Amino acid sequence: MSNLFEGVFTALITPFKNNQIDGEAFRNLIEFQIANGVHGIVPCGTTGESATLSHEEHREVIRLAILAAAGRVKVIAGAGSNSTSESIELARHAQQAGADGALLITPYYNKPGQEGLYQHYRAIAESVQIPLVLYNVPGRTGVDLLPATVARLANMGSIVGLKEATGGMERASTIRRMCGNAITLFSGDDATFLPFLSIGGKGVISVTSNVAPAQMVAIWNAWQAGDAAKALEAHEFLLDLNQKLFCETNPIPVKAAAAMLGLCEPEIRLPLTWLAENNQAIVRATLVKMGLLAAA
């Protein structure tokens, strides 16, 4: 079951309008993703501002995503929390709603040790039947899921993937060597998508593909076709955008970029604030340079 998810998965933004979920914009965003060839969508992750969604809103976003996808692409529902019981509840909801999988960030703020991380994920895996994807992003959570712990968890049948967002190729290679095909490696850092593929990774859970899905898919398609030169060209084409979309805390820049493209309203929830004017100009210029946005 480890190869259940492969390819380009978009870590979806959550569009808001008057501080409410903008269902129409969300559905249109998903159609945009599917039309441009992504293999899956990931609602209610970090990029979806999950930290400021109420439980009711979280469930609604998952429901809307599954309905909009309509079986055409995989849906991996964000279900992470720093509370194990809450994460179990969210994973159960994802399963009941019909998601194809659940994404589980490492418990933030609590800073559990490796045994705590193992027991956290084990408890979730034993409580649901839905396929689970681990998510390691120590820069945001303050805790690092080490390769040895990933290897312990890879022995559980329902844990099928890892979104590794450290950007470290040596780290990714170590995980790959220790786990083999027992777990699917996803890049959680857009600029390392192609390098991940070169060391045995099978996909990306991407921020950039919110606004440039076809361009991210081009990397995957070229690599799958055995055309390393074309994959490298596609990778380098996206480098500037990948960098600019992290000029401030994610998802501030990508949501601004999406608004520039007419994909959502220019609205984000506190404590995040809108992209600074100088950075707006930089992001807009990058989109224009890439041909994604018409020059003003």
Automatic annotation (TrEMBL):
Cellular compartment(s): Cytoplasm
Associated pathway: Amino-acid biosynthesis; L-lysine biosynthesis via DAP pathway; (S)-tetrahydrodipicolinate from L-aspartate: step 3/4
Domain of life: Bacteria
Location, primary (coarse class): cytoplasm
Catalytic activity annotation: L-aspartate 4-semialdehyde + pyruvate = (2S,4S)-4-hydroxy-2,3,4,5-tetrahydrodipicolinate + H2O + H(+)
UniProt keyword Metal-binding, yes or no: no
Residues noted as binding pyruvate in the record, renumbered to the chain: T47, I205
SMART domains: DHDPS (SM01130)
Keyword field: Amino-acid biosynthesis, Cytoplasm, Diaminopimelate biosynthesis, Lyase, Lysine biosynthesis, Schiff base
GO MF: 4-hydroxy-tetrahydrodipicolinate synthase activity
Record InterPro entries: Aldolase_TIM, DapA, DapA-like, Schiff_base-form_aldolases_AS, Schiff_base-form_aldolases_CS
Annotated Gene3D superfamilies: Aldolase class I
Site annotation Part of a proton relay during catalysis: residues: T46, Y109
Residues annotated as catalytic: Y135 (proton donor/acceptor), K163 (schiff-base intermediate with substrate)
Family designation: Belongs to the DapA family.
Quaternary structure, from the entry: Homotetramer; dimer of dimers.
HAMAP family assigned: DapA
Function, as annotated: Catalyzes the condensation of (S)-aspartate-beta-semialdehyde [(S)-ASA] and pyruvate to 4-hydroxy-tetrahydrodipicolinate (HTPA).
The protein, known as: 4-hydroxy-tetrahydrodipicolinate synthase
Species of the source: Candidatus Magnetaquiglobus chichijimensis
The gene coding this protein: dapA
